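Appendix C reproduces, verbatim, an entry submitted by the partner laboratory led by Prof. M.T., so that reviewers can inspect both the input and the predicted structure.
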Amino acid sequence: MNVFDQYEVWFVTGAQLLYGGDAVIAVDNHSNQMVEGLNASGQLPVKVVYKGTANSSKEVENVFKAANNDEKCIGVITWMHTFSPAKMWIHGLQQLKKPLLHLHTQFNKEIPWDTMDMDFMNLNQSAHGDREFGHICTRMRIRRKVVVGHWQDKDTQHKIAVWMRVCAAWADSQDMLIIRFGDQMNNVAVTDGDKVEAEQRMGYHVDYCPVSELMSYHKQIKDEEVEALVKVYFDSYEHDNALEDKSTEAYRKIWNSAKAELALRAILEAKGAKGFTTNFDDLGDVDVDQTGNGFDQIPGLASQRLMAEGYGFGAEGDWKSAALYRSVWVMNQGMPMGCSFLEDYTLNFDGANSSILQAHMLEVCPLIADAKPRLEVHFLGIGIRKSQTARLVFTSKQGKGVTATVVDLGNRFRLIVNDVECIQSKPLPKLPVASALWIPMPNFEVGAGAWILAGGTHHSCFSYDLTSEYWEDYAEIAGIEMVHINKDTTIGEFKKELRMNEVYYMLNKALM
C-alpha cells in the first residue's frame, strides 16, 4: 500500500460576503477547478480535498477544528481568492494544530488587459488578500510554508508536493513507537537524549523492551517459516551456491539470521512499532546454537531488510536516528533512488576528492545499492558474541543526495542537514559490508568541519531523492532549529549562524 493513500490535504479558500452572492459562487467554482486540476496534475502524492470557502470567523474556526479532528487530514492549504479580512482568521489559527501551507496564487494566470473591469478586480484580489492573511500569520507567529506561483505551474506543484510528503511523515510520526532492544552504548552522548521532550516536540514515543521479551517471540518461530524465508534470501540476492548446503556452518548462520528477522518482525507487528534499535552488547542470555535463548550475533541482515520495508532503525540504541529514518522512508516513498541509515566510518584524504566512507558493522539499507546485493557470511569480531553472521554486501549508487541528523543540545533539538555527493567506491575485500563513499558539500574539509561544529552525530539518515527543502519544511512544522551545510557554506559564516541561533534560542527560552 502506498503510504500516501491513507491521507488527504484540505484546501480552504478565503473570501468574504462583501462582494455579493455571485462573487461567492464564482470563488467556489474557481476553487473547485483548482483542486480538480491539482489532483489531475499527477504531481501531488496526496489527494487535495476542497473544504469550501470561509467567509466569516466562525466558518474558519469550524473548518480548522474539523481538520484537527480528522485523522486523514495531514495539513491545510489556504488561499485568499478575494480580500479576506485577517481578524476573521484569528480564532481559527489559534485552534489549528495541523501543518499549514499558504498558497499565494491566482485563478487566472495572466491579467485580461482588454476586458478587466471593476467586477474582475473585486473578485480576483489574491495579491491583496494573501498579504492580509500573511500579516496575521506572522503577527500570531504561525509556523507555515508559503508557496508563491501559479497553481498550474510545475514548480509550484512541486513545492506543494514536497510539503505534502513532509506532512505525511509528520502525521506518521505522531503515533510512531520506537522499540529499543537494550540500551545505547555505555557513555555515548550523541545517541542519547530527552525522550520526553522528543515526544512533545516530534510526536514519537520511545519504549525500552528487554531482549528477553524479544526471545519469547523468537522461540515461537517455526522451522518451516525460517526455511521459507531462507529460500527468499537465496531467490532475492546474489550468493555462492555453497551457502545453500544445509550441512555447513554458513547455512546455519543464514538460517539464524532468518529466524532473527521473523522474531523482530513479529514483535514489532504485535506492538505496533514503526522502528527499533539494537545493541551488540545485548543479544539475549545464551547463544542460539545452544538453547535458543539469544541471537548468535547482532541481527544485521534482519535490520537491513526491515529498513527496506520502512521500519526505522538506529544502531547502538540510537532512537533519534531510528525515528528520523522512518520519517525519511515515508517522505521517500515512490522515489527511485532510495534511502538508508548510515555511519561515518573512516576517512579518505585525497585532495579535492577527500571523502568519508559510510558503512556500519552490518546495517545499511539495500534500497541504496547500485546493483543486486550479495548475501555473504563472515566473521564479526565485535560485541558480546564474536562469530560468523550473514549480511548483504553492496556499494551505493553514485549521485547527489542529502543526509540529516537530529541532536539534543539540552535547550532544543537541532536538525543538521548536509548536501553530499556519493562517488565511486573501491572494493573492500577484507571488509565485507555494505557501504557508500561520499564527499560532503562544499568539500570534505568545510563539510566535515561544519558538521562537527554543529554537534552532528556519527549516525545520519541519507536519501538521494530528498533535498534540503524537505528538511526546511520538517523543521518548520516541528518548530526546531535547522542548519544546512551546502555548496555555499563557509566555516566563518557557519560559526556566525550557530552563534546567532544560540542567542535566539536562549532568549526564546527566557521569554517563555
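The mean pLDDT is 93. Additional entries are available on request from the coordinating office.
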